[in-house]
Amino acid sequence: MSDKYILELKNITKKFPGVKALDNVNFQLKAGEIHALMGENGAGKSTFIKVITGVHQPNEGEIYLNGEKIEINDPNDSKDLGIAAIYQHATSYPHLSVTENIFMGHEKIDSRSKRIMWGDMHQAAAKHLEELGADFEPRRRMSTLSVAQQQIVEIAKAISTKAEIIIMDEPTASLTKTESEDLYRITEKLQKIGTSIIFISHRFEDMYRLADRVTVLRDSKYIGTWGVNEVSNKDLIKAMVGREINQLFPKTEKEIGKEIMRVENLSRKGYFKDISFALNEGEILAVTGLVGAGRTELCESLFGIKEYDSGIIYFEDKEVKIKEVEDAMNLGIGYLPEDRQEQGLILDWELDKNISLSSLDKISKRGWIDRKKEKNMAKRLAEKVNVKARSIFNLASQLSGGNQQKIVVAKLLTSDLKVIILDEPTKGVDVGAKSAIFEIMSDLAAQGYAIIMVSSEMPEVLGMGDRILVMRNGEITAEMDVEEADQEKILEAAMKAEK
Amino acid sequence: MAEKNSGNGMSLERIQQIREFSLIGFIVVLSIFVQFRNSNFLTMTNLDDLLTNTAILSILAVGMMMVIITRGIDLSIGATLALSGMLTSMLVSVYPALHPLAALFIGTLIGFISGSIIGLLVARFKILPIIATLGMMNVFRGITFLISGGKWVSAYQMSDSFKAISTGSIFGINNLIVIAVLIYIVFYYFINYTRTGRKIYAVGSSPQSAKVSGINVTKITWLVYSIMGSLAGLSGVLWVSKFASAQSNTAAGYELNVIAACVIGGISIAGGEGKVAGLLSGVLLYGILENALPMINISPFWQNAIQGAVILIAVVVGALIKRKTGSSNKIRRED
């Protein structure tokens, strides 16, 4: 490892319509170092990586490679410059062989006959795999490999393109402990042959085990870079969350009533495990954690979209089974999905039809829909959630994200609910609509509805929740009352720092 | 909130209306042109002929429309039709006294059973509709050959009352037309005004949203194939009665005509879109082409090519209208 910078980014700013995804970010990668990049969800890590790999072009700022100013205009440029990225979910061709995946885009071709030289390619692939200590054949189909093995193929691909800089985006997120160990070993091997590595991870153990230095991003801004040995866990967490909570949350005085729902040891293989919690009337239970912690999957099982494998759900002190959406709806559970465009709405339908869709029984008599009743119901609820649209005959696709979300909320309110599950209710919603949604939430809680709110936004969790559940890797790692919670505690539980 | 949709965006219904009007306009222009070339075209006898010959196609198209709206396709209906026609006419040849209504009922029942098997494969076992119906098409066709031993049931083996199903008339209107009109009225209301009709559109527009909204997607999917089968079964009886002969290869390939009529009528193969009124104009155009092209001495070889061209034009025009109005949908309202 030398002190020369192989890659340097200066004052990078990237704007998307309405938001700054990167705000004056600086970053220096030394030749041959492993550099950890950390930050909360939405801190700007992914955008940053995309700037380096040429997927996005920065609006301002400069990029230097080996001291030379460069421009990276598309992913091919970055490939030519010796930069390779390995993503958490391998972006491979599952039906092709390992060899084909490794050499995709730079196949070995006979110069005269223009024929693909399969023999040479298989041999070269086998050599790369051996170097990485992999124990599978290059002729295997990609889809028959485990996630860890697929990552090794991606790394082999990076080596075969002679990449000098390899970016790994949360490579350990879906690996077991031993698989992670293997990955550490391979990463160190790469470092030994002179590769520089940017390693994105939410795990402190990854950072301590591998990295030489660590850079923290927060709210699209560069916070700082430290040597791993000179910084403590506490300082890093502080760097990641150190913001003031200045948003106003319309939390109203209310009484928390009796228990309405209790979940014991709920598990779904591969997604979440041994989830237990209780939910009371009038309470807002905030469920937080990092992306991929299993929160959405838990919600989907509570609402019967994906069946859980084991565990018991009690509803109003009675044991119940939720196998289908209908079961959940009959109990009085409502769900606002994370992806409102795919799961919440039918975009090319009018608002009134969207609002009534989950309660068609209510507006029909012996199977016939009463259009007048439907319109009245839709109008009443659209006004209640304060949708800004010209009429209820507008198409859902014509509304802004915030108003679309209000329509999904209105749709929820058509049923007689007791429990409302909101999965990232403010995702992609502008500030005005956000506070409107919070107001509706407070209102509902005050009326005695029990609310489960999944959110990645720390201020939201602390501002709206009465009680907070933190999940990590499909398990609950902390449960706390909002009075005793703070950002540091939550992030610590979400990342489960061990040091 | 304003009462009327006076916004810049255009609703789907409006798009459909434009489509239907342009289709009807085309039908009018075509009819005038044909009438000019052959004055026998717009006569009562010929129109009666035209509608009688289009009736079965139009009945099948209603079922196909619902299947296509749920993002599916049914290639088996020609075979279902043949199976039902063969079984019913064999029954009639053994029991000539069988009441025509009973024959219609039995044919529909056979179709329902066939359709519900397909529905089970598609909805329950998640087999792709094109594969499931292709497979069952061959199964049904094979069964038809087996039970008939490859032999025909001919006119002399059928009772007069059975043949009268398709040749008879009520108030001077051919029974086939009457049945088709009744079916269109029933399904117009079913699709537009019932809970189940709404759910069919929801499943086709966004299966995920439908599921999250508590709609039993499996049940709805099963239902549309069962209805399709029932209509195919009914059509089988009408077909054999009309042509007074049941053969093992009856209506082979007819499903493609039905799908073509749906496409002309603006039923989107991508699912979720399509109206009964549009379908009706699509079916009519298809029927007119079949009827009129021979009348103006166009060779049968050209007829196929012209029909194909019309299908493509219908799809392209539909896509263009949608793109044009779709772009205005993208103008978001200010908050």
From TrEMBL, chain A:
Record protein name field: Monosaccharide ABC transporter ATP-binding protein (CUT2 family)
Keywords of the record: ATP-binding, Cell membrane, Membrane, Nucleotide-binding, Repeat, Sugar transport, Translocase, Transport
Bilayer disposition of the protein: Peripheral membrane protein
Localization (cell): Cell membrane
Organism (species): Halanaerobium saccharolyticum
Keyword field contains Glycosyltransferase: no
Gene Ontology MF terms in the entry: ATP binding; ATP hydrolysis activity
Classification via PANTHER family: CARBOHYDRATE TRANSPORT ATP-BINDING PROTEIN MG119-RELATED (PTHR43790), D-ALLOSE IMPORT ATP-BINDING PROTEIN ALSA-RELATED (PTHR43790:SF3)
Membrane in keyword set: yes
Gene3D superfamilies according to UniProt: P-loop containing nucleotide triphosphate hydrolases
Highest taxon listed in the record's lineage: Bacteria
A cellular component annotation (GO) from this entry: plasma membrane
Residue span(s) of domain ABC transporter: 7-244, 255-498
SUPFAM superfamilies: P-loop containing nucleoside triphosphate hydrolases
Automatic annotation (TrEMBL), chain B:
Protein known as: Rhamnose transport system permease protein
Pfam families: BPD_transp_2
Membrane topology: Multi-pass membrane protein
Keyword Cell inner membrane: no
CDD domains noted in UniProt: TM_PBP1_transp_AraH_like
Superkingdom of the source species: Bacteria
Keywords attached to this entry: Cell membrane, Membrane, Transmembrane, Transmembrane helix
Transmembrane segments: 21-38, 50-68, 75-95, 101-123, 130-150, 170-191, 220-240, 252-270, 277-296, 302-321
This protein's GO CC annotations: plasma membrane
Molecular functions (GO terms): transmembrane transporter activity
Subcellular localization(s) per the UniProt record: Cell membrane
UniProt source species: Halanaerobium saccharolyticum
InterPro entries hit by this protein: ABC_transp_permease
